[in-house]
UniProtKB/TrEMBL annotation:
Listed name of the protein: Protein DETOXIFICATION
A single GO molecular function term of this UniProt record: transmembrane transporter activity
Keyword Membrane belongs to the record: yes
Topological category with respect to the lipid bilayer: Multi-pass membrane protein
Organism expressing this protein natively: Triticum aestivum (Wheat)
Homology family: Belongs to the multi antimicrobial extrusion (MATE) (TC 2.A.66.1) family.
Transmembrane segments: 141-163, 175-196, 237-260, 281-302, 308-330, 337-356, 382-401, 413-442, 454-475, 487-511, 523-542, 549-572
Low complexity composition bias: residue spans: 17-56
Organism domain of life: Eukaryota
One cellular component (GO) term of this entry: membrane
């Protein structure tokens, strides 16, 4: 809406007597209308002077302010109205008519040119703002809804991440009724499958979320003839998922015996035969499992966490129905458990692919349209990060096991609670990642900053709330796992670490999400590797002095250093967060022009 000219006077606070050296304006109403379309006509002052030197009068419209707001003028405003003190401007954005003012403040020629320049600048800024809003809408974002967007994405994500652990608990409960041997055999097989899956699948999930969100923001208007989005990041993620899943399946199926030996299960062990059969069957579900995770990342990039929850829930319901039928009805034992899990994985993958096919082109018409470079580079870095964290956690478990069976049981209880309550922070991190990636792709740094700050605030608040809640209820929660008084006593000695570390855990997860959102995968990976080395040293030596408390001191060190690394990156004046340290640009620097 630019600056509109009218006569300025009226309220006492705006009374601006003309300096003696400047003549009053005596232009006719038609002249004023010609100079400033839409301005009000002149009143009494129009005939107060017959001087031939006629100057345009000024009425500022500051669209960023609401009506009646009192401000300190900016540099440009001081140039146009060189008056001391505070000025009271009325917004013209609402279209409210402003009556003509007496005692106008006329402008010399160079200030008229500055006013015209400022008017043009404001119009350009409003056009840019409208374009930015259009880009946000095309990316599935809405201006001014950062908190709502984050919460609406996080809530379904929490539910989605809780479904799989619940299904695994039910599988464990059904298998446990078969006997200790069957439970141990299945447990070894699940552990091997999960370790291999985390190493390769988690990086693909995280990278797909950022790349797809960026692609949508940059290519929101690119559709195929069928009206579906054509996004190279989607097709590339699916092809990579299929390839990785096939490799995992072959490795697990053909190398099941080798993996069991690495886990300490020799061919003479009573667990070997059943564990190898279970692992070989679970290997058949690896392609579906990888594709399922990749499509979840794609939907997160679309800022849609509801669709995956729906289909993951349906797939796990099918597993719950098949488990008792195959295990007890057909008397297949742990073989039936493996078959039911694999079937549910394919059901979820098929449903997700079907839903995705309605929104985006799954495979491009030409192979050269696929873009694997970014995935392979970032995936390689995150692979190192994942290995570092897994190694550190494994060292912690190993050091806890050396403390004896009682300490190991207590450690397992504390670890399960510690990991379970992290689902909320992880969901917030995933949501922040998707929102930041979308805004960062279109260089909307203001929204990126809003999302980051709001995420950290809500993460800290939720972490503190979890810490208090766990501290109050930890004793009751521990009794759900065991009634052994010795184990419960050891659990209580580590409860302080579990509770007090919750705010740190929440911020560490969210910082990872923020850095993933700006595709800063290299820094996250390198920092995590360094953090893992330091934490591993603590885990190797602290338990020798402090026992199980030393193990938890090492795990707390791991999360604390991850949080510190996240903060440090935001403080750097170079890199993807450099815009946080840039000085605000001066919108107008008018220079006096020669008359």
């Amino acid at each position: 809406m630019g600056i509109q000219r009218a006569l300025v006077s009226g309220q006492p606070a705006l009374l601006c007597p003309s300096p003696s050296g400047w003549p009053r304006s005596s232009s006719s109403s038609s002249s004023r209308a010609r100079r400033a379309p839409g301005a009000a006509s002149a009143s009494a002052s129009a005939s107060s002077s017959s001087s031939p030197n006629r100057w345009p009068s000024l009425s500022l419209s500051l669209s960023r302010l609401g009506s009646g707001t009192t401000i300190i003028p900016t540099q440009a405003e001081r140039l146009l109205l060189p008056l001391p003190g505070l000025l009271d401007f009325t917004s013209r954005r609402t279209g409210t008519a402003i009556p003509p003012r007496l005692h106008a403040l006329p402008l010399p020629p160079f200030q008229e040119d500055a006013a015209l320049s400022l008017s043009k600048k404001e119009e350009e800024e409003e056009e840019e703002e409208e374009e930015d809003n259009a880009l946000l809408l095309g990316s599935g974002l809405y201006p001014g809804t950062v908190g709502i967007d984050l919460i609406l994405l996080a809530l379904p994500a929490v539910l989605g991440q809780a479904i799989d652990p619940m299904a695994q608990l039910m599988e464990t409960a059904y298998i446990g009724k078969l006997g200790a041997l069957e439970l141990a055999s299945a447990g070894i097989g699940v552990a091997i499958f999960n370790i291999l899956s985390k190493i390769f699948n988690i990086p693909l999930l995280s990278i797909a979320t950022s790349f797809v969100a960026e692609d949508i923001s940059k290519n929101a208007s690119k559709h195929s003839t069928s009206g579906k989005l054509e996004l190279p990041s989607v097709s590339s993620a699916l092809v990579l998922a299929a390839a990785i899943g096939t490799i995992e399946a072959l490795a697990l199926f053909l190398g099941s015996g080798l993996f069991l030996k690495l886990m300490g299960v020799s061919p003479v062990s009573p667990m070997y035969k059943s564990a190898r059969l279970f692992l070989s069957l679970r290997a058949l579900g690896a392609p579906a499992n990888v594709i399922m995770l990749a499509v979840q990342g794609i939907f997160r990039g679309f800022k849609d966490t509801k669709t995956p929850v729906l289909f993951i829930g349906l797939g796990n319901l099918s597993a719950v129905a098949l488990l008792p039928l195959l295990i007890y009805g057909f008397k297949l034992g742990i073989t039936g458990a493996a078959i039911s899990t694999v079937a549910s994985q394919y059901i979820i993958a098929i449903l997700l692919m079907w839903s995705l096919s309605k929104r985006a082109v799954l495979l491009p018409p030409r192979v050269d349209q696929l873009e694997f470079g970014g995935y392979l580079k970032s995936g390689g870095m995150l692979l190192g990060r994942t290995l570092s964290i897994l190694l550190t956690m494994t060292i912690g478990t190993s050091m806890a096991a050396r403390q004896g069976p009682t300490a190991m049981a207590a450690h397992q209880i504390c670890l399960q609670v510690w990991l379970a309550v992290s689902l909320l922070a992880d969901a917030l991190a995933v949501s922040a990642q998707a929102l930041i990636a979308s805004s960062y792709a279109i260089l909307d740094y203001k929204r990126v900053q809003k999302v980051a700050m709001f995420s950290l605030q809500i993460g800290l608040a939720s972490g503190l709330a979890l810490a208090v809640g766990l501290y109050i209820s930890f004793g009751s929660i521990a009794k759900l796992f065991t009634n052994d008084p010795q184990v419960l006593a050891v659990v209580s000695s580590c409860a302080l670490f579990v509770c007090a570390s919750q705010p740190v855990n929440a911020l560490a997860f969210i910082f990872d999400g923020l850095h993933y959102g700006v595709s800063d995968f290299d820094y996250v990976a390198q920092a995590t590797i360094v953090v893992g080395v330091i934490s591993s040293l603590v885990l190797l030596y602290a338990p020798r002095v402090f026992g199980l408390a030393g193990v938890w001191a090492g795990l707390t060190t791991l999360m604390g250093l991850r949080m510190a690394a996240g903060i440090l990156r935001l403080l750097w004046k170079s890199g993807p967060w450099s815009f946080l340290h840039e000085e605000p640009e001066t919108k107008l620097q008018a220079q006096p022009l020669a008359s």
